[in-house]
Amino acid sequence: MGQYAGLGEVAGKRVLVRSDLNVPLEQREGSDPVITDDGRIRASVPTIKALADAGARVIVTAHLGRPKGERDPQYTLAPVAVRLGELLGAPVEFATDTVGESAQQVVAGLAEGQVAVLENVRFNAGETSKDDAERGAFADQLAALADAFVSDGFGVVHRKQASVYDVAQRLPHAMGALVAAEVDVLRRLTVDPERPYVVVLGGSKVSDKLGVIDNLLGKADKLLIGGGMVFTFLKAQGHEVGKSLLEEDQVDTCVEYLKRAHEAGVELVLPTDVVVDTAFPSGDRTPSPEVVLAAEIPADALGLDIGPESTDAFARALADARTVFWNGPMGVFEVPAFAEGTRAVAEALTKVSAGGGLTVVGGGDSAAAVRTLGFDEAAFGHISTGGGASLEYLEGKELPGITVLED
Ligand SMILES: Nc1ncnc2c1ncn2[C@@H]1O[C@H](COP(=O)(O)OP(=O)(O)O)[C@@H](O)[C@H]1O
Ligand SMILES: O=C(OP(=O)(O)O)[C@H](O)COP(=O)(O)O
């Protein structure tokens, strides 16, 4: 328990652990949602188990998805608590609220070494509030449930949120084993990475992640852009993108990035072809994928993957890499018709690893993608549980959930 030395003896103490249990769920008509990848739950187990084994009364707090500060049944953590119990090999109590009567009762009933999960912390508006007082008031309620706090949700350490940041100011605190291990690997990418250093970006959290490019242009040798990021860049190049994901207010920023990449000699690789469909894939619809030139996306279509020509170009750009960081799937990989770009990038990374290079895959969905597409985790240097968090760490930004632990 050296990791938690700052907390003193944990036996008998109520220890609040912030984990990142934000796993992909498939909603199924008429039955409970199914966890399609439990990687983040598995990654959270060692810290929870170590504390429970040491006799702590462990209270796990976490979020799922982005509910809008109120109860939303599709984002309940109940199935996650069940899975955590299976992985721990011990029953896990579940509180049907986060800080209310149920939470208080469940915590009061916890024996030494027992584990409880509180309902989705984002069902409370205070969690993500930009107002310090509102966030603080909610953090007070969370802190009242516990004697100590362990921060182990690496995927959220870039969020200045009550259960990540404010609660650490209110309780004796320590960094969890997962956060410590993640930071250890990522540090290797910031200190003199072996070159060429290639960063691959994709996914759908476009507004969150476009900003990181600013900083990466000064660090990486090549930047490969796929996924939902592509279309704001294509628009910046003067192309129409139909119904694709687009951050209209970021187009000028992308124009600037294109210019700066050119000036800095950074190779910025954008897809030249994309796989489109006329609607976003949904359960009851058979996809009808079509490959079009990136410069000629029809008005009624939306881009859902990078095309075959781009896939080859991305693989070529990765072939001589010695360090690679990849965050964000290249397409809607959950649907086989739009998974090829993601598969090809994953394949290219395994080759870099096999040749002795360092590859890091970061992000809940990116990690889930490599696993669900059948890749062996051992074929990558490191699979990080955090996408946005890793990117901000690599940028050299201060991560509120980590700096707060240093105070
Ligand atoms: N072109 C696209 N349009 C819309 N969604 C996309 C596109 N490409 C990828 N996605 C979606 O992005 C999601 C993952 O994005 P993100 O959360 O940013 O990644 P991560 O969790 O790895 O950080 C996936 O669910 C995938 O379906
Ligand atoms: O999924 C997450 O981040 P990621 O998609 O950047 O890996 C984390 O659980 C954080 O979730 P958030 O981006 O809704 O704050």
From TrEMBL:
The lineage of its organism: Bacteria, Bacillati, Actinomycetota, Actinomycetes, Propionibacteriales. The gene is pgk. Pathway: Carbohydrate degradation; glycolysis; pyruvate from D-glyceraldehyde 3-phosphate: step 2/5. It is found in: Cytoplasm. It is an enzyme of class 2 (transferase). Monomer. Substrate binds at residues 20-22, 40, 63-66, 122, 159. It catalyses: (2R)-3-phosphoglycerate + ATP = (2R)-3-phospho-glyceroyl phosphate + ADP. (2R)-3-phosphoglycerate binds at residues 40, 122, 159. InterPro entries: Phosphoglycerate_kinase, Phosphoglycerate_kinase_CS, Phosphoglycerate_kinase_N, Phosphoglycerate_kinase_sf. One of its GO terms (cellular component) is cytosol. One of its GO terms (biological process) is gluconeogenesis. Keywords: ATP-binding, Cytoplasm, Glycolysis, Kinase, Nucleotide-binding, Transferase. HAMAP family: Phosphoglyc_kinase. PANTHER family: PHOSPHOGLYCERATE KINASE, PHOSPHOGLYCERATE KINASE 1, CHLOROPLASTIC-RELATED. The keyword Cytoplasm applies. GO terms for molecular function: ADP binding; ATP binding; phosphoglycerate kinase activity. Pfam families: PGK (PF00162). ATP binds at residues 209, 303, 334, 363-366. Its EC number is 2.7.2.3. Belongs to the phosphoglycerate kinase family. This is Phosphoglycerate kinase.
